[in-house]
């Protein structure tokens, strides 16, 4: 017969009381940890807001002056907007002129050949052994890569590197061709590929330099509007590299 552990009267009540006290202490510790986490998040949030506010209030003098020149509630025509951007006090470099569209959906993409140069030099290469050698070393010295279909298997192992950058040759993008030399000439002439951001219905495109003639910038902008399709565009803005944005009016 096994040993029987003696128990004094009242032991059960003592144990229950101790369990309640331990549970209360445990809950108190958890609450304190949660409070500490919340306090840290609040401090971080306040810090971020302060930095953001500081960044907003410390915009350059030129930017602040430009902001005063733009009516934030007005929708400008293309000629009005470009003329306004040209009047803004220039910086030390020839700024790019950029179009920014808010569209109805993600996944939109296409190609367009603008009537005038954007001023950006596009580096186009045909995939060959020297390009493969550069890729092995982690060197990417092109903006567009064109290839013959027979060379695609050799490029396959670099898909994880080129794909996220939008540089992997693709038949739909016109960069896989049995006549790669002709494709190179097309892109060197100014063929642009555009698409929405991966997760947001936004399109951004440089259409020239602020020093370019007004009529050339207008022609490039109108061509890009048509390429995207005005029916897809919900809001449109134009700006230079360092200026505030200007709202554009357009008819669908």
TrEMBL record:
UniProtKB keywords: Repressor, Ribonucleoprotein, Ribosomal protein, Translation regulation
GO cellular component: ribonucleoprotein complex; ribosome
Compositional bias of kind Basic and acidic residues: 16-42
Chain segments carrying region Disordered: 1-43
GO biological process terms held by the UniProt record: regulation of translation
CDD domains named among the record's database cross-references: Ribosomal_L1 (cd00403)
InterPro entries reported for this sequence: Ribosomal_uL1-like, Ribosomal_uL1/biogenesis, Ribosomal_uL1_3-a/b-sand
Domain of life: Bacteria
Family of the protein in this entry: Belongs to the universal ribosomal protein uL1 family.
Name of the featured protein: Large ribosomal subunit protein uL1
Taxonomic source organism: Candidatus Roizmanbacteria bacterium CG22_combo_CG10-13_8_21_14_all_34_12
Classification lineage: Bacteria, Candidatus Roizmaniibacteriota
